[in-house]
Design a protein that fits this description.
Structural class: alpha/beta
Distance between the termini: 23 Å
Order of helices and strands: EHEEEHEHHEHHHH
Number of helices: 8
CATH topology: Pyruvate-ferredoxin Oxidoreductase, domain 3
Largest sheet: 6 strands, mixed
Radius of gyration: 16 Å
Number of strands: 6
Strand content: 15-25%
CATH class: Alpha Beta
């Protein structure tokens, strides 16, 4: 990871992708790495796409990640995982929440939501980690903790000391929500 690490966070507005990017930025800072974060907001308040690039390493010159350069895609929603798969590099991982959130064209009946997205991703011979993060977050007491469930899964596969992740969560999450989020993080980490 010393040569650099590229993470693409994809989801829809309201899922906690931006908080997740701040937590990842803090992880990088706590590792004493250079870090760049770039957020691209769609119609996030209406459930539109939100994409965040997080790059860290010894030296990071640009916050953007090109197609085929992503080490990990952290996908908060199935269709968003499928939309951004071309950004994953060969040998990269995609951690995908199995939640489906219909975009506006599907809600309006103008398009159909693609079926069997996990099966389609599996056909691409990728390293896929599907997670029912919504169900896990609900069992931890807060459906909004999907992001920390997914961070727990990422932490487990990152090779970064778990304490750095926990400290970074504590630095970014309000105290009244920290207990639930730590529980969600641990549940994701233990998967």
């Amino acid at each position: 990871m010393s040569k650099g690490y590229n993470i693409l966070i994809v989801g829809v507005g309201g899922q906690g992708t931006l908080l997740t990017s701040r937590i990842l930025g803090t992880v990088a800072i706590n590792l004493k790495q250079d870090v760049k974060v770039s957020e691209v907001h769609g119609m996030s308040q209406r459930g539109g796409s939100v994409v965040t690039y997080v790059k860290f390493g010894e030296t990071v010159n640009s916050p953007l990640i090109e197609a085929g350069e992503t080490d990990v895609i952290l996908a908060f929603e199935l269709l968003e995982a499928y939309r951004w798969i071309k950004y994953l590099k060969k040998g990269g991982k995609i951690i995908v929440n199995c939640q489906r959130i219909d975009p506006m064209p599907v809600i309006m009946g103008k398009q159909k939501y693609p079926e069997d997205i996990i099966d389609r991703l599996n056909e691409l011979d990728l390293q896929i980690i599907p997670v029912d993060a919504l169900c896990i977050a609900k069992s931890c007491g807060n459906i909004k903790a999907v992001n920390t469930v997914l961070l727990g899964v990422l932490a487990k596969h990152s090779g970064i000391d778990k304490k750095i992740w926990i400290d970074s969560l504590k630095e970014n999450i309000k105290e009244k929500f920290i207990e639930t989020n730590l529980k969600a993080f641990e549940a994701g980490y233990d998967l």
